[in-house]
Amino acid sequence: MPGMSAPTTGGAGACPLCDSDAGALVWRGAKLRVIHAQEAGFPAFYRVIWVDHVAEFSDLSPADRQHCMEAVTLVEQALREQLAPAKINLASLGNVVPHLHWHVIARYEWDSHFPAPVWAHPQRECDTARETLVAERLPALHALMRERLERWADLGEQ
To answer: Where is this motif: Histidine triad motif (predicted)?
Structure first.
């Protein structure tokens, strides 16, 4: 179909999301992976990355779109349950890296950019003490994400 990007496997240097995990791997399934992006100032910044190299969400089949969004939902729910942020930001941009991935970001009223997007200009200085408190809770969060994603996988995710 014109305008549709065909899945590819990338190649050396072709795509940073094809060439590496692109962060600290939390979970890997047959069609997608979840990584902790480790972005400075945002201790609970995650990406759900589609394995095949496609640029747009609409390039996926209806079943794969549902599959992708269920993973995004599971990550969001785990963030809300474990960290109780003020808000969860979800974004799929792809302007810099045209490989389908969703940003799932726990936001706090005290974070340096709140209420603006994480890519905007800072509103205040970073609160490193609070960031550290969030970071200390990430091992439990990652365990919960893996548990939920594995249970989902066992129910037919793959």
So the answer is: 99-103
